User: Fold these one by one.
Assistant:
Number 1:
Amino acid sequence: QHIPVLLIAGNHDNPERLNFGQALFAENKLFIYGPATASAAPVVLEDKTGPVYFAPLTYCEPLTATELSGTKQPTHDAALKWQIEQMLSQIPAKARKVALAHAFVTGAQETPDSERPLAAGGSAQVDISDFAAFNYTALGHLHACQNCNPTVRYCGSLLKYSFSEVSQKKAVHIIDLDAAGTVTVETLPLTAPHALAVTKGSFAQLIAEPHPEQANDYLQVILTDTTPILDAKNKLETIYPHILQ
């Protein structure tokens, strides 16, 4: 069974490289969108009640949107509005529609140690109202699993990529779209084989009072000693074998 998969380029990606073999992959229901283009079209998939239009809003710099549109797009919000306008012009007004976007929605939770900034200051942020025409919007870029509103959500990264994500709960959203375009959401937690964790104390404490429950964790160890400890990492690894920092 071929399950359709839609992928869009983000700000970390090489969009031209992602585009390689696009038509070939699409024949097998793997839809990949690399560079932003003026001719981007929605993907139409059928369910039991009819068509659903998916709008792949691949990451687009304001300068790129300006060049493609022929009009000044000074911010990421302006660039996204142009992309959405291009997509909606190809989708029937009453059709069910889902957006996929790589963006930083204003007010959403950042993880600065993990995420590469899109731009300086607030010019990278986009307004949640940009997605008002869609029944659901699946967002990428920010690593925390979070809801901007019930129909605009980040699933976040599948794994924790820095110690600033220690307290984050990783998950994926399973979305059901009914015939009327109403969505219901089930959020499934993800548990990694090795948790990411932080432990703190003096070297003597960590040796004398170990935390066996952290033996399987990828650890950041914060030593409170005021004098250097010779070969601290190797000695601690006899108790905590997965120290990263």
Note: The longest strand covers residues 50-57.
Number 2:
Amino acid sequence: GVDVPILMYHAVSDNLWGIESLFVSPEDMRAQLEYLTENGYDPIFFSDLTHLSDYDKPILLTFDDGYDDNYEYLFPLLQEFGVKATVFVITGALGNEYYLTEEQVREMSESGLVDIQSHTVNHDELETLSYEEQAYQMSQSQLDIARITGKIPYVLSYPSGSRDDNTLELAPEYYSFGIDMNGGIWHIEGDYFQVDRIYVSRFDTLDEYIAMLP
């Protein structure tokens, strides 16, 4: 088995229109990517977990919600450093203020550097929904993303980490992975539908960031 750090981000911007800790500054994002690339880390997609032996130090960079700053600030950095990232989009929010447009999602997906995956349709906490409502949130977001990108998403990030027994029963019908919020470094032999991540905050220094990594 292999321990694979999965980092959880949200926004990349100094325009702090929401919860401040969720906004990693573009300057800090650059420093973090620079550290990873200079120290032998291999940012991968979830699909790359099937051939981990190809990587010395695999790591997954994930961004929740699908904010437009992921296109404005993050995407150029990924291109500059040649780094892969996964963006979990709320499909019902695409085109709204502060969120990615369908055109931006398509461009990022076609670049080969960004894997567009599901964060449901409305970002409702799944454990508050009925079985049928959860099934809709999973299936419709999958259809939405497939229509926009031409690729069927295979990873679901649970909104706010919320899930219940219905979630864990339904998710494998549509997806190959179910992603939690905070919880530390994920061990690849663990549960594929209770995948842990490490939360990266705006307030983490580079030294604190480095200390999170194996």
Note: Helices lie at 26-38, 69-81, 102-110, 131-149, 165-174, 206-212.
Number 3:
Amino acid sequence: MFKNIIAYRFNKPFSINAESLETAINDFKFTPCGSQDISNFGFSPAFGKLGKTLVHAAEGYLMVAVTKESKIIPAASIKERLNDKVELLEQSEARKLSKKEKDALKDEIITDMLPQAFTKQSVTKALILLEQQLILIDSSSASKAEDLLALLRKALGSLPVIPLNYKIPVESTLTEWVKSGSAPSPFELQQEAELRGNESEVAKFKNQDLAEDEVLAHIENGMQVHKLALSFGQSISFVLCSNGDLKRVKFSEEFTSGNDELGNDDPAARLDADFVLFSAEIKHLMNALSDSLGGYETLE
């Protein structure tokens, strides 16, 4: 399941079923790059090679995935070929080439190199929690999250979402938790935090008791906690950021073994059961964060 979470909230009531969503995104399926494509981007099966549908749905949870494939052309190779061509032309024509001419040459070189270029693929997944009216994207990159939302918006015609924000600044709450030495149940402080002060003042602590005087002295001097490692019950550990993002999300071995009695004779069935198990726990985590961080920012 997810390794990172960037959360968005519907700012207007949103409802859709798996069939309708599947139909909507079917026209925007991923296809590998052709010989002259620099990159391609589209929806791919939610469960990868084990999946047959672009949307996976179970018990009110919807998952979609997008794949991006890009051609890899080393900048050094382009520069080397460009320099050779520019030098040859300038010598043969006894003049300096303009920037416009050099740019045109560069485009020609890239076009010539595209068919032989290696490709790389990346997959980004999104979990839609209809009950909570949230979309959670598994990425540490805001730009990748926005790319997924833009494609989903294009497929659906509209997608009324905004970044998830809390009523109280997250850094204020995290600072109070560290200052008091505890977080509200079911959360527990772990031994990692990042504090920030004015301008570029940063203090990072890892594998260190956050109740130590060194940490608290920074808070007394006005610094605030912008990243804090937490655990959620016995199931999930993560780093909560001041913008609400969750980084390095990790599920415990005890939790991930919750469906072991099902075995692996039917991989698709096991994957479906795990999807429900993990999605439900992520939902509980998001609900608990809302309760502990003062609730979501009021929508206009």
Note: The chain has eight helices and twelve strands.
Number 4:
Amino acid sequence: MSILCIDIAAIPDVELGAKLYGLHDLSEKDITRVMYTKSREKDISPGDLEHHLQKVLAISLLIQDEESFKIIALGDRHSSEIDLLQQLQQEIERHKPMLITWNGTRSVLPLLHCRYFSNCIQTPFKNGINHTDLKNELTANEYQSSMTLHEAKLLAGFPGTPQMTPAATLDAWLAGNVEQIRNDKLVNVVNIWLVYQRLRYIHGEIDLNGMKDEQ
């Protein structure tokens, strides 16, 4: 079976925010500020937006099948959300993979479902997909766990720099540094892969040599 590790970067859907709150004359930065303020009024955690208020900025994938192993950032810094969603649809339908995520159950997949719905694109998840959420696996489905991918990587003894926080991603987007965000997501899918291989080993799915070969 093919394996597909995925990570996405999301930003506020300022067009939706403008419609919801009548902010058509404000800048993206000001609309964003209002959207976060409104979210805090709903008792949403500071710095968070509900899934339906966000849109996809970048998607990175690590894909392994019997013939290849590749790490890719879909599209380029100028790609529209529709382009990214369609490319993801094509990759999933081509490989029919097992999907590997970090916190995908509560973050990645709900957001993607909302964006396929918003853009009226058939979702590649329509017939169900074999999905492993590494955070769920590592924390035994403890939904209150705040463990990050970076923390899991350090727990496993892997080196590396911290991933960008949502706040840092927002600042980079507002400053026009989309390539920085895309690069961060490429690193993240590699880290997801590394954590996945460690979990496969501790669950007895591969032996120590198999884990070292994969890494």
Note: The radius of gyration is 18 Å.
